[in-house]
From TrEMBL:
<feature type="domain" description="Major facilitator superfamily (MFS) profile">
    <location>
        <begin position="16"/>
        <end position="493"/>
    </location>
</feature>
<keyword id="KW-1003">Cell membrane</keyword>
<dbReference type="InterPro" id="IPR020846">
    <property type="entry name" value="MFS_dom"/>
</dbReference>
<keyword id="KW-0812">Transmembrane</keyword>
<feature type="transmembrane region" description="Helical">
    <location>
        <begin position="349"/>
        <end position="368"/>
    </location>
</feature>
<feature type="transmembrane region" description="Helical">
    <location>
        <begin position="324"/>
        <end position="342"/>
    </location>
</feature>
<feature type="transmembrane region" description="Helical">
    <location>
        <begin position="469"/>
        <end position="488"/>
    </location>
</feature>
<dbReference type="InterPro" id="IPR011701">
    <property type="entry name" value="MFS"/>
</dbReference>
<feature type="transmembrane region" description="Helical">
    <location>
        <begin position="81"/>
        <end position="101"/>
    </location>
</feature>
<feature type="transmembrane region" description="Helical">
    <location>
        <begin position="284"/>
        <end position="304"/>
    </location>
</feature>
<feature type="transmembrane region" description="Helical">
    <location>
        <begin position="145"/>
        <end position="166"/>
    </location>
</feature>
<keyword id="KW-0813">Transport</keyword>
<dbReference type="Pfam" id="PF07690">
    <property type="entry name" value="MFS_1"/>
</dbReference>
<feature type="transmembrane region" description="Helical">
    <location>
        <begin position="374"/>
        <end position="393"/>
    </location>
</feature>
<keyword id="KW-0472">Membrane</keyword>
<feature type="transmembrane region" description="Helical">
    <location>
        <begin position="186"/>
        <end position="203"/>
    </location>
</feature>
<feature type="transmembrane region" description="Helical">
    <location>
        <begin position="246"/>
        <end position="264"/>
    </location>
</feature>
Length: 495
């Protein structure tokens, strides 16, 4: 492990990264393991599915709203203190959520815990990228960002499997019994966050130089309300449909209007809240868009496959999570490989190869049937995740390398903000597509009474058709990503 000398103080970069990865693992587990626990939450709190999904909706909203603020916080607050604040908020949020009494009247407490956690996670993700970019030289960033990709890619995919394993039955580990309660799904993130919080005062260092930056409150209001309304509108698409005016169209258009005003204001400020002029640099913009396409392709199928496996194939939550586990492991392996290859072949080659592999792994999903062997699905999913790993983090590294050091915090915030928006859009898009296909192909109700087996068969076909269209859209992301990767600049030092 290599020590770095800065401001007459020596610190170990590897230990700093390890602390951040531990905390990020806790945040990612807390974020992604909830989906498997939704049925348990509905039963425990006596709430319906729409109410239970608020836990995800509010998390996405506040996570997205906090990301633009990260650039200001990174420049204004010392690195160590900001990490302590973020990890402390995450610990409190998970603890509040985990401790919520089981009754419908206390559901708001659960949501408050999720909001606090989302605010912390919205700071943690951009901060990890900013710290890595400040600690490592351009020729070293590929490997460091590959390690970051290990957490970002693997842990979210492992979360549903781990949650399904916990909820399946009680488990005794080293004499301690982990119950099959929904609360146990938050216990592991809580413990991991606690470890990171204890280590941070000793291992985290003030890597990012601070400066007195005035907070433009109008910009803060425009960004938080604008992104909040925009993301809220898209998260409502799945339950209300695209044509719903008050819950979908009004917040989306109002959010867009506020964001246009926000961008115009940032463009004209001498010290912007978020420097949108970073997008004038095409060597930043193109890799950023390519990386976002890889993220959208990942989230699209990652969201659809568990539903297909459970609703069409009849697998349990735990078994469906196991089917996707190999993909998570392969993504971790190829994140490390792509990091090692970054300086040898460059982001352009890695991106094109990655999207080609992603396309090859996605295409067979268009021909899924209720009888497709689970092992085939697992292999194809693994191929997809390997391709995503080869494309996503190298493109993020490439984008950040195109900016001067003083712009990395703004570039990271802009990159993560667009990712959050893109993820919300793709979830809304694919959910609405699948639901519309199912609604348009649902057989008449009398068939449910007269010929229940035929009714079930037609519903199965309708669901499968919806999933295939979702997979086709994801294939489109892969094709578009491959094309755009061709236009990424190949630097002279890259092969």
């Amino acid at each position: 492990m290599e020590a770095v000398q800065t401001n007459t103080r020596t610190y170990n970069r590897t230990l700093v990264v390890v602390v951040m990865m531990i905390a990020m693992a806790a945040g990612a587990l807390m974020q992604t393991s909830l989906g498997t626990a939704i049925p348990s939450l509905m039963k425990a709190f006596d709430i319906n599915l729409s109410t239970a999904q608020q836990a995800t909706t509010w998390f996405l909203l506040f996570n997205g709203m906090m990301v633009p603020l990260s650039a200001y916080l990174a420049n204004r607050i010392p690195t160590k203190i900001l990490h302590i604040i973020a990890y402390g908020l995450l610990f409190i949020g998970v603890l509040v959520t985990m401790s919520t009494p089981e009754n419908s009247g206390s559901w708001w407490i659960f949501i408050v815990g999720r909001i606090i956690s989302a605010m912390a996670f919205g700071i943690m993700m951009p901060m990890m990228q900013i710290v890595i970019l400040n600690m490592y030289a351009p020729e070293e960033r590929g490997a460091a960002m590959g390690a970051m990709g290990l957490v970002i890619g693997m842990v979210p995919a492992i979360g549903p499997t781990l949650s399904g394993w916990i909820l399946k039955q009680d488990h005794t580990i080293l004499g301690f019994t982990l119950s099959d309660s929904w609360r146990s799904t938050f216990l592991i993130p809580l413990v991991i966050t606690g470890i990171a919080l204890v280590l941070t005062p000793f291992l985290m260092k003030n890597v990012i130089p601070t400066k007195k930056v005035k907070l433009d409150f109008l910009s803060l209001i425009l960004s938080t309300v604008g992104f909040g309304l925009f993301l809220w509108g898209f998260t409502n698409v799945g339950s209300h449909g695209w044509g719903n005016v008050p819950n979908v169209l009004v917040p989306i258009f109002a959010g867009v209007l506020l964001l246009v005003i926000f961008v115009w204001r940032q463009w004209n400020l001498s010290n912007p809240f978020l420097d949108v002029k970073v997008f004038l640099n095409k060597n930043f913009t193109i890799p950023t868009v390519v990386g976002i396409l890889a993220m959208m392709a990942m989230f699209g199928v990652e969201m659809m496959l568990p539903t297909y496996l459970q609703n069409v194939r009849g697998l349990s939550a735990f078994d469906s999570g196991l089917t996707l586990l190999w993909g998570a492991l392969l993504m971790g392996v190829f994140s490390a490989i792509s990091g090692a290859l970054y300086n040898k072949v460059g982001a352009k080659v890695l991106g094109m190869v990655g999207f080609a592999i992603l396309g090859l792994g996605t295409f067979p999903f268009l021909f899924l049937t209720p009888e497709t062997p689970t092992i085939i699905i697992s292999v194809l999913y693994g191929v997809r995740m390997a391709g995503i790993a080869m494309a996503m983090m190298p493109m993020t590294t490439k984008a950040m390398a195109a900016l001067p050091d003083e712009k990395t915090s703004h570039g990271t915030a802009a990159n993560n903000t667009l990712r959050q928006v893109a993820n919300s859009v793709v979830v809304a898009l694919l959910t609405s597509v699948v639901q519309n296909v199912i609604n348009n192909n649902t057989p008449s109700n009398h068939l449910k009474v007269t010929e229940p087996l035929r009714y079930a068969s037609k519903m199965l076909d309708a669901s499968l058709d919806g999933f295939k269209i979702a997979f086709l859209i994801s294939l489109g992301f892969a094709v578009l990503g491959f094309i755009l990767a061709f236009f990424v600049k190949q630097d002279k030092e890259e092969a």
